[in-house]
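Holo prediction — D-MYO-inositol-1-phosphate.
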Amino acid sequence: MHEILRTAETAARQAGAYILQAMSELRQVDYKGRVDLVTNVDRGSEAIILECIRRAYPEHAILAEETGDNQQRSDWRWIIDPIDGTTNFVHGYPFFCVSIAVQFQRQTVAAVVLDPVHDEMFSALHGQGAFLNGAPLRVSPTAELGKALLATGFPYEMGDRWHRSMDYFKLFYYRTRGIRRDGAAALDLCYVAAGRFDGFWEYDLKPWDVAAGMLLVTEAGGRVSDYRGNPGSIDAGQLLASNGAIHDAMLEVLNTLPNL
Ligand code: IPD
Ligand code: CA
Ligand code: CA
């Protein structure tokens, strides 16, 4: 397991160095949706990560945002977001990361999230804790929603869930110290693990947005679920993550409106 984590860290570091160097260069921006961006740097970062994994574990399955499923059948599966926070990256807003999770029989066992700008490497191993640059991480002790700082994000597509996200924003904004919308879900989750945010909720996230961050939160002592309180899943399309202490209070707010 430690060897797998080391491979993930090496891959993230190589990709992070490439992304940083590419920040100063002109980027080729394409649209996946109305505001869903992808750049040549997303693709380049993914290629670097895939190369590292293939060299060390050629038989492992991989699910990566830009190239999809590698069609390998294996108990082991790597889930990769080569740049989480692409819109931030495109605008030079320094809040984006590389996210790599490793699953064994569909359970996430190792996770690495690297913020290359601030040189922060978040990592976790199932049952062995969460770490920031090697130092143990713990969620915040905040027990009251009224003293909490939350984070969220909004779906790209402007449907019912987009409107519902705005409604939730208002409800939480009224009840907490504040809400940040920082634009990189994987890093938002690491900030919950680090006690910088007390809670986070968002619709329509994909497995590569949340797989690593969810393990970071639980290994740092927090809780992850859907909006009803069922155990968190990378495929659920809705995620509530918190320090645990304010989880029920957040569920109560989410459940004041019908679940979508
Ligand atoms: C996005 C970010 C953002 C979230 C979006 C994601 P990307 O990932 O995590 O915070 O609100 O739903 O798609 O596109 O930058 O990899
Ligand atoms: Ca993402
Ligand atoms: Ca991405």
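READOUT: The first strand starts at residue 29 and ends at 31.
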